[in-house]
Amino acid sequence: MKLFIYDHCPFCVKARMIFGLKHLPVRLVTLLNDDEATPVGMIGQKMAPILQKDDGSYMPESMDIVHYIDRLDGKPLLTGKTNPAIADWLQHVGGYTAKLLLPRFAHADFEEFATDAARRYFINKKQASIGDFNQHLANSADLIAELERDLQRLSPRVVSAEAVNGELSEDDIHLFPLLRSLSIVAGLALPENVEAYRNRMAQRSDIPLLFDMEQ
């Protein structure tokens, strides 16, 4: 199977996770960020991730891909209960983390930005959505301080480094991609158990963190 992705994209990380967790092979294909024709040709719109199944058909939507792959062998891994507090926490920090992450993604060495046109496409689209990147970068200290306070609130909810609630669940598929994205933010301190969870989930999912692009 092939999985068409952007490396920076947390939704793509969700889809990648299930292959790593289940030790299943998949060919990753990184799309240029300004390539609209390829995804539109597959599914009728520009989005990622897109799974090309063994029969050649295409499946969009990260959680649809996760559920499909998890249940394919009749032995699902994501059987643990979810904790509404994790979803609430993600919704809360999601209100401002894009201001920390998107300006840094825009300057990082991701394969989807291999051309100047692809990088410019991303910058123009995202600045239209969240505002001037330079202004957000200038406000990084305040945003990092707010996030570190919120990460302290997350800490007691992380039950184990092996799975946020003790047993693998959809909460892991939603939480790890954000924590992975945050590894690009220089100077951000995570509580010890949250960092241990992030490191272990990166290992289990076979998805590298972004420390080599830290800004």
UniProtKB/TrEMBL annotation:
<dbReference type="InterPro" id="IPR011767">
    <property type="entry name" value="GLR_AS"/>
</dbReference>
<feature type="domain" description="GST N-terminal">
    <location>
        <begin position="1"/>
        <end position="77"/>
    </location>
</feature>
<protein>
    <submittedName>
        <fullName>Glutaredoxin-2</fullName>
    </submittedName>
</protein>
<dbReference type="InterPro" id="IPR036249">
    <property type="entry name" value="Thioredoxin-like_sf"/>
</dbReference>
<dbReference type="InterPro" id="IPR007494">
    <property type="entry name" value="Glutaredoxin2_C"/>
</dbReference>
<dbReference type="InterPro" id="IPR004045">
    <property type="entry name" value="Glutathione_S-Trfase_N"/>
</dbReference>
<dbReference type="InterPro" id="IPR040079">
    <property type="entry name" value="Glutathione_S-Trfase"/>
</dbReference>
<dbReference type="Pfam" id="PF04399">
    <property type="entry name" value="Glutaredoxin2_C"/>
</dbReference>
<dbReference type="Pfam" id="PF13417">
    <property type="entry name" value="GST_N_3"/>
</dbReference>
<dbReference type="InterPro" id="IPR011901">
    <property type="entry name" value="Grx2"/>
</dbReference>
<dbReference type="GO" id="GO:0005829">
    <property type="term" value="C:cytosol"/>
</dbReference>
<dbReference type="InterPro" id="IPR036282">
    <property type="entry name" value="Glutathione-S-Trfase_C_sf"/>
</dbReference>
